Amino acid sequence: MAGKILVVHRNELILDVIQEMLHDAGYAVSMTCDPQRALSKAMAHSYEVIIVDRHLEGEFDGVRLVELLRKYGVQSPVIGTAPNADWAEQSIDLVDRLIPAPFDYSELVKAVADLLEDEPNPILDSLSDPDAGGLTDFESHEADHLTTELSDLSPPSPSVPDAPPPQSPTTDTPKKESLPMPIATSRPIRPWQPPHIEKYEGPARIIFSEASDGTRATFEGWLKDAGAEVTACKSGDNIVEATMLNTYDLIIIDLWTSGMDGFETLETLRMSGVDTPVIITAGYITKEMVSELLPHRIKKIVLKPSNHDVFMESIQETVTV
């Protein structure tokens, strides 16, 4: 069994339990509590299934996360969890399964297997409710075998001439009771279409990330003095989120930021279809790092610390401000 699963939940303890259950069932699991981080992961990597809790903590909740996933072309099946399946009416068709909380973790694992159409797995079978009634396939086989052997040892029953021939039962064999399945929803495939954007006529729009508060304020001042419309961010996560909602003429990415670093930020932007020119700033970089960045179509690399003239010359070579 193979499958890469992304789990997004506000409770770290529940995340650990879900991860352990899915690992035991043979899946590779990536997990996070942060919806922004989840969005970045889903756009930068391919997941077989994404599990999203309704009540996330952060910039947006689970419903908004799934809406953004669909908007930006992530078509992985989504399992939604929440107390009493508390999802907004308009968002139900965006998910493939709804599992009310609290839920049995075996239900979640079985829902994943169902979406992936996996073959029966002994680990998954062992998760079935032992009180559900009925025998397992192995137990049924052993019981049939035992019955056959005992019947061979028993003497034949005396024949009764007037007795009618035995009739084969017409009733169906009772089926083994199974766990209740999660609610399935029908989600039509709706490929994302880019919105129509009117031609912008105004100052250059520049967004940049910078880990240092002092350097960030300096760069912001230089860009504003040159007449640019500036959005200053502390990490790559902020850049990824902002580019989903706005259009920019230039993106400047600090290679070493907390949270999402410059490499992952750049990869996420390109995977999501953002083709805006990018300049990289870094206090330290090697040839191997440059080789990793070049396939993502960067324009320039500016080493820090940088003075005003060097920094602004790099900007002017890429965009008019």
Structure description:
The radius of gyration is 29 Å and the shape is elongated. It has helices at residues 12-24, 35-44, 62-71, 105-116, 122-125, 137-153, 213-225, 236-245, 262-271, 287-293, 308-318, and strands at residues 4-8, 28-32, 49-53, 78-83, 97-101, 183-184, 205-209, 229-233, 250-254, 278-282, 300-303. Helices cover 36% and strands 16% of the residues. The protein has two domains: 4-124, Rossmann fold (3-Layer(aba) Sandwich), CATH 3.40.50; 205-318, Rossmann fold. It has a six-stranded mixed beta sheet, sandwiched between helices. Strand 9 (250-254), helix 9 (262-271) and strand 10 (278-282) form a beta-alpha-beta unit. It has 321 residues and is an alpha/beta fold. The protein starts with a strand and ends with a helix. Mean pLDDT is 77; it is low at 119-130 and 132-154.
Using brief descriptors, characterize the structure shown.
321 residues, alpha/beta, Rossmann fold, 2 domains, six-stranded mixed sheet, 11 strands
